[in-house]
Queue: 2 jobs
Job 1
Amino acid sequence: MSDVILLAHGSGGLLSQELVETIFLPHLGHPDGPLEDAAEIALAPGRVVMTTDGYVVRPLTFPGGDIGTLAVCGTVNDLAMRGARPLYLTAGFILEEGFPLAELDRLVASMARAAADAGVRVVAGDTKVVERGAADGLFITTAGVGVVPEGVRISAAGARPGDVVLLSGSVGDHGLAILAQREGLGFGPAEPGPSPLQSDCAPLHGLVAAMLAAGGASIHALRDPTRGGLATALNELAHASDVTMTIDEAAVPIHDAVRAACDLLGLDPLYAANEGKLIAIAAPEAAEATLAAMRAHPLGAEAAAIGRVHAGREVGRVVVRTPLGTHRLLDALTGEQLPRIC
Amino acid sequence: MSDVILLAHGSGGLLSQELVETIFLPHLGHPDGPLEDAAEIALAPGRVVMTTDGYVVRPLTFPGGDIGTLAVCGTVNDLAMRGARPLYLTAGFILEEGFPLAELDRLVASMARAAADAGVRVVAGDTKVVERGAADGLFITTAGVGVVPEGVRISAAGARPGDVVLLSGSVGDHGLAILAQREGLGFGPAEPGPSPLQSDCAPLHGLVAAMLAAGGASIHALRDPTRGGLATALNELAHASDVTMTIDEAAVPIHDAVRAACDLLGLDPLYAANEGKLIAIAAPEAAEATLAAMRAHPLGAEAAAIGRVHAGREVGRVVVRTPLGTHRLLDALTGEQLPRIC
């Protein structure tokens, strides 16, 4: 038996079946019945939402996570940003010939742990193999389905003038952890120990449920600031809702290690990627209770109110008040800050 | 404006947005509201099924189809093989830096046509870009959701002794069309004109609906013989149902051009891939009516009864009676007949 992926593992024949039986099913769980072309799923009452994301992150494993955790958390979070309870995922794997089976096994195990943490089941999968040089190791594309509870109406278009902009924690952790790992940059501690730059990769549906319990229908919009960072996500929300926002830069939590690395590299942490943070737009009367609920949740301990929503549009969608008291326009990301961040 | 994919098209910033607005939304349709992290879908009553498949076919365009039609039809067909009405797809694109935007536009247009033909909506998408050499042009992963009508219970484990094995048409067309195109083999006609080797890529849900109208609950199992071909799909069905099958090789429709190409290349058409064919296992009393319904449908005009299901297991799962009257064991595909066939 080979210890690396062969083209025949993607043939649909016996080696494909062996891969399913030795790696995918042991980690992701056997279905109750036979392996079908499509899996049956049971949905609770409520509005159903569906999403997909591809994952091409490099390196495959980084401080705080790997492509397996990312492929589960990223799609779970897209569902959670509609206020949904994530329920089912599918996973499509594209593998390069020669990829080590032991590494695949480790990454699928990691995916299974993330799915268990997030309370979702991976109900269908597919594996394709391409020849050496036609892909870079492993790409994963997940799709997800979730159910939005009765009464929850969250939309990127929901922000209204007067609303408060809440942020669940520090920004830039994922982006800088990947960058430091990839480039071998020495941002680690002088003494041996884990790097202070750790990805924040985490499933956010539990935090969202706690926020909805506190803020209810007063939570108007949610978005997770992934690629393009906080700046791009705020611009998307402001654009979709046809409002403007003012953000107080000093209120945005940024870990010291991230700030130091950004200073050194000339990067703006407001554009760096996050994989376990969310922006919430809440009505002013519910902002305090929502913020308290966020801070009471392990994934929102550093949550902060960072700005306000306003009507009209004068110079731009999002304006930042800097710690020096000056103002600058915060546009969506132009160009590419860091390829293959997720 | 660039005419090829740049890394920044995968940044999540302004160029990503431009790609969505100039290519994806014009073809695949604007949502009713803003672009959300997850799309709301409306499901008819019934059991819900979900599936995914990745597409890495090479070349991207081939006689009878392209990766866009394939990425829609393949996932639609996996849903149809449960007897479901396919309703919603998601599409994740992994693009190589430098990929021509005009080609992407053409392939997404083709995807949109296939989705319209199949009556499904592509409700969510994602684009990632990797650097030159880290992927081979374009990979697409689709996921799909469909609803199984009341009373329909189709499963790979449904075949019972005495059942009839039906096949919706000729085998090997997709596999040989790809092979001929890829290798530049001269199987074309002496006179100019389309190659006689054309992929059979097509959505099968309409054929399945016509069969269910005729055969109802007497249709026990369905499978589309894609990678690994007819032989592998029959073995999967026999294994999942714990039965054996005898197949009459002379009854299996094979187009002359496919047979000639297989003879020349030493390939067995029973292992060649199909993208618009299905195997149905039906109770004997309903087999004739089901076959008649298949033949009345444009995608089943060449349908045939090709074998029977039996109890027990002696030497193997699937036995073929050859045109010479001898018998041979038909195993699932071992090794790799042709990489990147879908």
Job 2
Amino acid sequence: MTRTLTVGLVQHPCGPDPASNLNSSLDGVAEAAAAGAELILLQELHRGRYPCFEEHPAHFDEAEPIPGPTSKRLAQAAADYGVVIVGSVFERRAAGLYHNTAIVLERDGSIAGTYRKMHIPDDPGYYEKFYFTPGDGGFDPIDTSVGRLGVLVCWDQWFPEAARLMALAGAELLLYPTAIGFAPEEPPDEQARQLEAWQIVQRGHAIANGLPVAACNRVGDEPAARFWGHSFVCGPQGELLATAGDQQQVLLARVDLARVETVRRMWPFLRDRRIDAYSALKYRFRDTLRGRF
Amino acid sequence: MTRTLTVGLVQHPCGPDPASNLNSSLDGVAEAAAAGAELILLQELHRGRYPCFEEHPAHFDEAEPIPGPTSKRLAQAAADYGVVIVGSVFERRAAGLYHNTAIVLERDGSIAGTYRKMHIPDDPGYYEKFYFTPGDGGFDPIDTSVGRLGVLVCWDQWFPEAARLMALAGAELLLYPTAIGFAPEEPPDEQARQLEAWQIVQRGHAIANGLPVAACNRVGDEPAARFWGHSFVCGPQGELLATAGDQQQVLLARVDLARVETVRRMWPFLRDRRIDAYSALKYRFRDTLRGRF
């Protein structure tokens, strides 16, 4: 028995004009839908250049509510093509309260759900802690007509806890809108290690949870970084199904959601988790009480 | 600043004679020590053929106490060569109470500590739940003269929780004695996916925790499987430092333990974990209360 889902990933560069960027995303949606995609994943904050390359209050002007202009355009596209779209919005939730939010549009144009990025990075060129309030909604998947989607965002991809909590809540697929790139001053061997690590840690989530994973990353040179693209889709054994390069691209992959059960019967990690011995995962570090819990 | 540690991994086949198998391990220890290894990792249950290919009470005769014959031979070797050895013992703890136990010998021949395998597999050819009581000691690293070692065993390698708990307790290196192989009836493409997944999930632990990882796996045909070898060592970005083939081999790698701090400053995942939102990791599945915790 198979249950095949065609997934489309849209990676593109972003320039200074938000309308043009959103058109790039929607052109990709159209192309993916025409090629048969039923679920389309966009890159992180695809409407704008990555705003966190500097800390400046003016960048909050780029934020918008949900529902808002971007979510409405995405909803219209979802309805027009009859596809589920996972988009990404710099969300203004209230004055002084902003999030990096993934939004899932159902094929009828309704909002299936949102996910507010839980893990917020902050390092040179990625000053996200200035802009994005950490999500307060936890790690809940979003139910759609194509399955229960474990939507996470970028920095979340480095945290096995996030993937596991989505799996435990019944996610059938993990999806990561992403914006990650090379710092220009890093030597080529370091750049290669970073790109490989980025892919491997996410393939590791696929394996540890017996779930397919799709990650969509932007491309192009911006003040923060040279975004490295390489969007990919892998199956529940971490096996690569499709990988993009570092240019604008619509990537398609056929994912068999039924294979999750086949793989988990062979590798029943959920059966063997030692839930009696994991309580220290809630600590920052096991120093003060190390060894005794 | 660097803090280099030379690690040796000893992978070999095991036949029906325990004394001969232990000699294979100790020959490998001698070879690794002569080549400069300060820390030597042996494969899982290296004194015997993998006993769990069938469920038969007679195999419990292969178990031994700690201290016992195997631990004493390993201790002598550790003292003779002045190295730290991570071995693996089918441990008889009491009548009817057996464990799959890793043992760490200090370079003076003393026992630095033991780790009783926490996650116990059970699938065709690997009937471990019949033999091995799940460890009750939790995930505590073992302090040695070469560093604080996060020793885990085989099936543990598929569980991000185990690696994370070791990292949170200050482990400087993750070490996995392993016995994993191909079922003969599996087609080549499935075998390739399994081997790659096995390596990637462990490299993922290295990346997620910013720690080097070493895994030592047996080789050779036995009733349970064709053990696939491919022992490897990777650094804290998951970058491969050394990889073995599928034959008897002593694998050496130089690991820079100081690079852990360099990498973690750039990728400060421990800083950004959402410990306020991880409580559901202690549940088997988030079904009855899904979405509300």
